[in-house]
Amino acid sequence: MSSPTSYAVTTGAPTTGLTDLPAREIAALVRLGRVSAREVVAAHLARIAEVDPRLHAVVHLEPHRALAQAIRLDARVRRGLPGGALAGVPVLVKDNIDVAGQTTRAGSEGHDGGLARLDAPVVSRLRAAGAIVLGRTNMDELAMGASTQTSAHGPTRNPVDARRSPGGSSGGSAAAVAAGMVPLALGTDTGGSVREPASQCGVVGLAPSPGLTPMTGVVPFAPDLDRVGTLTRDTGDAALALAVLSGREPAPHRLDAGGVRRLRVGVVTELLDRNQPEVRAALEDWVARLQGLGVAVTPVSVPDAPAALECYTHLSSVAALGSLAPWVRSGRAGEEVLRRWELGRQLLAEQTRLDAAREVRWRLRRQAAQALRQVDVLVSPTMPTVAPLLAGEESARELADPMGAPYTDCWTVVANLAGLAAVSVPAAVGEAGLPVGVMLMGAPGSDEQLLALPRLRP
């Protein structure tokens, strides 16, 4: 099933050559010695220098270290040694994930200034597979936001339309991938922070099954909801990256086209309301194309899905009281962090509201499990809107709309609360040339199925 994955970038000439290639093709070329890792890294550093001054997706760059790593990898390849599944692939890492020798700021002034002693396991696994870490990407402060406007580093702009938000909290990672700065970036997803920016920037955002990617070395927000995920330009790269991050051996796809067509798809009826018309139209067209390829599609119900956002906000705000206390007590936390911190404190004193949120989560888990006994994959819009304008831009009134920025993650939180694997894939380009994403959700362990479905071709 073909999905549009490229958009006009407003920051310069279109990308060419090495910066256009998917990660798996770069790695194959480097392993075969047809291109050097040094050339690959240099091309992507040049692309960052070209486009990032306007986008501000990258907040820390280590070009000399990256080039030195690439040169060492090239020497290994010349000696006939294995290059790795991600040989020479440039990657960027969200600012809340430890990279040895760097300060993990998490988009906040509340950090202690210390340097990480070790790479987070997800970073060390990337390096072990031959990937080259170029630097860090911007994010909403402490992952509390959906716009990448609350960062102490300043806001990031959407490469499709620089007047607009790239989404958040992993907006820097999504913008970097969409703009061709890297083919792969790491993000974190507590309530949609990988999938929402993927939808707004027109890339693939994977929130893997809970527990599949290690969380050690990652600044926690709500630990039982947090996941490390990936931003890529297609699902093939997402599958390769997930194999590396989960510690599995990359393997050929086990689902052939016939197996994918036999997957049963359910459209979540409760997530069809309150969407912008172009978002709903994009979903309906995407589903119709699936049906045209022989996939069985049926409506399914998750009755408490509309209550998920309030449930998520309450539970995550309480969880943050323990996980983010040192950052808040520094006295340098920003307005959004303090707002959620205060909400968490209030909820601790209002046990009835907290118990009600926990009950909604329990029901969501039960309802999602029941729906997934009827079908293999749940489908909905990733978010109810296209990318909103940044605050301060002309016509930014849409940010105050009930379907605007505070509510853009109202659908994505369902997967985190229900413990589902989820991915956002590009579905269409809307009337204003803005990307629209479709979200696929499945039972824990269904990641391969979710990534295989969008690869169907007529």
Automatic annotation (TrEMBL):
InterPro entries noted in UniProt: Amidase, Amidase_CS, Amidase_dom, AS_sf
Stretch list, region Disordered: 147-174
Location of the Amidase domain: 39-451
Pfam name, any one: Amidase
UniProtKB keywords: Transferase
Gene Ontology MF terms in the entry: transferase activity
SUPFAM superfamilies: Amidase signature (AS) enzymes (SSF75304)
Domain of life: Bacteria
Family stated for the protein in its record: Belongs to the amidase family.
Protein name (record): Aspartyl-tRNA(Asn)/glutamyl-tRNA(Gln) amidotransferase subunit A
Organism field: Nocardioides scoriae
